[in-house]
Design a protein that fits this description.
This protein has one domain: 4-Layer Sandwich (Glutamine Phosphoribosylpyrophosphate, subunit 1, domain 1). The protein is built from 7 helices and 18 strands. Helix 4 runs parallel beside helix 5 and helix 5 packs across helix 6. The longest helix has 15 residues. The protein starts with a strand and ends in a 5-residue tail after the last helix.
Length: 289
């Protein structure tokens, strides 16, 4: 199953070296179990998106370690891919960039022919360069945001509401980042997604803060205020909270998550694991250590 990770550190830029490379269950290490692609997205001090990704496991790419030691940003988005739709190519690897925003998705949806017709209707077909359902989903969000005068949250709500009413859906869990904001959606309850707020400094340990999960880990000595989003709890800290089904969270530079639940309890055509083809079903099952 694909893994998502997002971090917002407010107005303070942070390095990602600890959780990308050095943690016991780092992104580098976890790419051995989710082999179809690894990607990290950040923003430059000028607010321009920068994506480092490859259509192979990070442990197979010598350049990944060099880049991971230098990346820093106020927001991070990371994705470890187990492919459900699309070949194992660079263009199909998350995160995707559109309109100065970065996007990564964990889930599956069907009816891509209908989604493609919708993209043509809203003038967004040209945003799609690969084969994945995820990039098409992002393109609809981008188009609806454009039609909402640049209001990303409104664009998300309009795009997801349309998909929930017109497409067979298994899971639409995703993270979107900009240089100043992070949005996360858990919808519906098929996959878990957790949020953690740290506003009083990291938990005291002999070596600083260490947060680990079976998939992605964070280790930091210099970030005291932040919000984390992850597909699994990263440690036993009670601040981790499972997001509710249909919950959309927005985190701005003040690091105070704001959430709402603008979607119906279940999509009109809710898919179960048994409804997916063999490849998609395999990609949506947890591969715990």
């Amino acid at each position: 199953m694909c893994r998502l990770f997002g971090l917002h550190s407010g107005q303070a830029r942070a390095k990602a070296t600890f959780w990308l490379l050095n943690a016991p269950a780092s992104l580098l290490e976890q790419s051995r179990r989710e082999p179809d692609g690894t990607g990290v997205g950040v923003f430059t001090p000028e607010g321009r998106p920068r994506v480092e990704k490859q259509a192979l496991a990070a442990w197979q790419d010598q350049a990944f370690a060099r880049e991971a030691r230098s990346l820093e940003s106020t927001t991070f988005i990371a994705h470890v891919r187990y492919a459900s739709t699309g070949a194992h190519t660079y263009v199909n690897t998350h995160p995707f960039e559109q309109g100065g925003r970065l996007f990564a998705h964990n889930g599956a949806l069907a009816g891509l022919d209908k989604l493609e017709r919708r993209l043509e209707d809203v003038g967004a077909a040209g945003l799609v360069h690969g084969e994945t359902d995820s990039e098409r989903m992002f393109a609809l969000i981008t188009a609806e945001t454009r039609h909402s005068g640049g209001n990303l949250e409104e664009g998300i709500v309009n795009a997801v509401s349309w998909m929930a009413g017109h497409l067979p859906i298994f899971s639409l869990n995703f993270i979107i980042t900009t240089a100043t904001g992070m949005w996360a959606l858990r919808y519906p309850e098929s996959h878990e997604l957790y949020v953690r707020e740290d506003h009083v400094g990291p938990a005291a340990t002999p070596d600083g803060l260490e947060a680990t999960s079976p998939r992605i880990s964070v280790r930091s000595h210099d970030i005291s205020d932040r919000v984390l989003i992850a597909t699994k709890r990263m440690d036993d800290d009670p601040r981790w909270r499972l997001m509710e089904s249909g919950e959309l969270i927005h985190v701005g530079p003040d690091l105070r998550p704001r959430s709402n639940r603008p979607f119906p309890a279940r999509p009109a055509m809710q898919m179960e694991l048994s409804d997916l083809d063999a490849n998609a079903a395999a990609s949506q099952q947890s591969r715990e250590d």
